[in-house]
Design a protein that fits this description.
Elements (H helix, E strand, L loop, with lengths): L7 H12 L3 H14 L4 E7 L5 E6 L6 H7 L25 H8 L1 E7 L6 E7 L2 E2 L3 E3 L4 E7 L6 H4 L5 H18 L4 E6 L5 E3 L6 H12 L1 H6 E8 L2 E8 L4 E2 L5 E5 L2 E3 L2 H10 L9 E2 L1 E6 L5 E2 L10 E2 L2 H18 L9 H6 L40 H7 L25 E6 L3 E6 L2 E6 H20 L3 E11 L2 H9 L1 H5 L4 E4 L4 E8 L7 H12 L8 H16 L9 H13 L13 E5 H7 L4
Parallel strand pairs: 1-8, 13-16
Antiparallel strand pairs: 1-2, 2-7, 3-4, 3-7, 4-5, 4-6, 8-9, 10-11, 11-16, 12-15, 13-14, 17-18, 19-20, 20-21, 21-25, 22-24, 23-24
């Protein structure tokens, strides 16, 4: 087949396929044009998921008659004041959006510039342009797109349902609205109820208001402000506390010089920053805004402009990690443990059987001797630490006895209070001045050991303990090879291993901080974590994985009975330890209930 030149109409439709993939793509391009035009309000209307109709109205500067004629020509743009593609300061700059949409749909543009006596209108149908005629419009621009892809029916077959396409449009508008809180947005259509986001005040407070309107009240209440700056690059925004997570990474938003982008850079950086706080299957919610010189970022990577390339990607990643870590460390106690609402729901009386609960019929409460006031008093629950309870037991209640056995003024002025009991050999109950705290002893001590390991490694390395008789751990050959290949990294944490034949490993040194530990269980856990590593994972992150696993094996185990002084010592260590609100796996280490909330449960308030 001979080589031939394609007709201009076909060329335009091919080009349109790169820019307008679905109705949401058209909405994105048109809203970006409105933002670049200096609009302070943008109204979006869609019908049929954008397939039947899209209408975008803004109050921007508008276009003159001559500008309107050029706007629908390919590669005509007002976004570049010179030919320097290395300094892109606007959201759009290719000059392809309007002609691409006009090539595959029916496009109508009505616009009025302040210097024109009236508005002008232009229509484009499948690439065929009409003449420019006078029209009525007070100011700004109104763009209407109807019958999208009617000129390319094959594309229609690949569109999803109207509801799905409408949700894609909403997500595009949400991202643009998050990037520009100073602009008012409204969305309407038959698919969903109308929504309006009023223009917010400048500064961090206004940005948080817009983020809360879009991401929800939960994000607003748990948001932590983050900021980091170096070498002309600024990273700022808000990150949710570890108590607010999602099952996927769709709640992570990155904006570069006001442009919403999707970049693997943020996924890796956020995962690294939250690694000490969340389980591996949970993802945080963050909105980060990167500002840097336009020459330091390439926005001309993809026709849809959803990807960027940084000149110094390592610096941007480091700033993101630093900003998030610093913010999370600063707000270390804002965890799921401190959200009383979730904990209180478990105590609601509505969950009790009809007629209430009778402890005398419960098998967990065996019969007890009668108290001094004539009623049968319940014995302590099975599993209550006898050693701890004996210390705090005040005997059977007397007629004139008060529930508070210790005066409030004698309580220590500590955030986590004073230990009162240990229940089920795993949970410490402490009393504070204005409530009570329930601590998971294993999770809490796991975080303490982990932070000590990190501090020891950073300060002077981990102290080692040489085993008099090496532990020989039998494992399959593939696992042995993986562990031995990482022996150098494990040695940094004081774990000395070497191959002991084809299916065994000899453990010769262990970190002194762990004391006596089960070498076989430790190595198997390490092998499971290493299976998820790849060469792109930084050495620091790998070492933290090792530290977290070691801390788990070196902490106080569930089921161990603690003395009162041990429980109080653990509480004091928690107060002095960074990030003590969660264990290394992201679980909360304690739950706090305020006295006022407890009184509400019993109808006292």
């Amino acid at each position: 087949m001979p080589v031939r030149q394609l007709p201009e109409q076909i060329v335009n439709r091919i080009a349109a396929g790169e820019v307008v993939e679905r109705p949401a793509s058209a909405v994105k391009e048109l809203v970006e044009n409105a933002i670049d035009a200096g609009a302070s309000r943008i109204d979006i209307f869609t019908d049929g998921g954008g397939r039947r109709r899209i209408a975008i109205t803004d109050d921007g500067t508008g276009m003159t008659r001559g500008d309107l004629a050029l706007a629908v020509e390919r590669h005509a743009t007002s976004k570049l004041d010179d030919e320097d593609l290395l300094r892109i300061r606007t959201l759009g700059f290719r000059g392809e959006a309007l002609p691409s949409i006009g090539a595959v749909a029916r496009l109508a543009i009505t616009t009025r510039h302040a210097g024109e006596p009236h508005a002008w209108a232009l229509h484009v149908d499948a690439g065929v342009k009409s003449g420019i005629v006078p029209a009525a419009l007070t100011h700004g621009t109104r763009v209407e797109v109807s019958d999208l892809f009617h000129a390319t029916p094959a594309r229609l077959k690949f569109l999803k349902t109207d509801r799905t396409e409408a949700e894609a449009i909403r997500e595009v508008v949400r991202r643009l609205a998050m990037a520009r809180p100073d602009i008012a947005f409204s969305m309407a259509g038959e698919e969903r109820a109308p929504v309006t986001w009023a223009a917010a005040l400048p500064g961090a407070a206004g940005r948080l208001t817009r983020l809360g309107d879009i991401l929800g009240a939960d994000f607003r209440s748990s948001a932590i402000e983050v900021r980091s700056e170096r070498e002309g690059v600024t990273v700022e925004g808000f990150a949710a506390a570890p108590s607010l997570t999602r099952a996927n990474a769709l709640g992570q938003y990155l904006f570069v010089n006001g442009r919403p982008v999707r970049d693997k850079l943020i996924l890796g950086a956020v995962r690294a920053a939250y690694a000490d706080y969340l389980p591996r299957d949970r993802h945080p919610v963050v909105a980060l805004f990167v500002t840097l010189d336009a020459r330091e970022v390439d926005a001309n990577v993809h026709p849809a402009k959803t990807e960027v390339r940084f000149r110094n990607a390592g610096l941007v990643r480091a700033l993101i990690v630093h900003a998030l870590k610093e913010g999370l460390a600063r707000e270390g106690r804002r965890t799921a443990a401190n959200t009383d609402g979730a904990a209180l729901d478990a105590f609601r009386p509505g969950t009790l059987p009809r007629g209430g609960w009778d402890w005398r019929r419960s098998p967990s409460y065996p019969a007890a001797p009668a108290s001094s006031f004539g009623a049968t008093a319940p014995a302590f629950a099975e599993g209550l630490s006898e050693r701890a309870q004996a210390t705090f037991d005040t005997g059977a209640p007397a007629a004139d006895m008060r529930m508070n056995a210790m005066p409030a003024e004698d309580l220590p002025d500590h955030p986590l209070g004073a230990a009162r009991a240990q229940i089920h050999e795993n949970y410490i109950v402490s009393q504070t001045r204005d409530g009570l705290v329930i601590v998971d002893q294993h999770a809490a001590h796991e975080r303490i050991v982990y932070e000590r390991l990190k501090a020891s490694l950073e300060r002077d390395g981990v102290q080692r303990q040489i085993l008099l008789i090496p532990d020989i751990v039998e494992m399959d050959e593939a696992t042995v090879e993986k562990l031995v290949a990482r022996a150098g990294e494990l040695e940094k944490f004081g774990l000395g291993i070497e191959s002991f034949g084809p299916g065994a490993i000899a453990v010769r040194e262990v970190p002194a901080l762990l004391g006596k530990t089960n070498a076989a269980a430790l190595l198997r856990d390490l092998a499971e974590h290493m299976a998820e590593w790849d060469e792109a994972l930084p050495l620091e992150r790998r070492l933290m994985h090792v530290a977290a696993t070691m801390a788990c094996h070196g902490s106080v185990r569930s089921g161990r009975i603690l003395k009162p002084e041990e429980m109080n010592a653990l509480l004091r260590d928690m107060e002095a330890t960074p990030n003590s609100g969660q264990c290394n796996h992201g679980r909360p280490t304690y739950v706090e209930l305020k006295l006022a909330d407890i009184e509400k449960l019993f109808g006292r308030r």
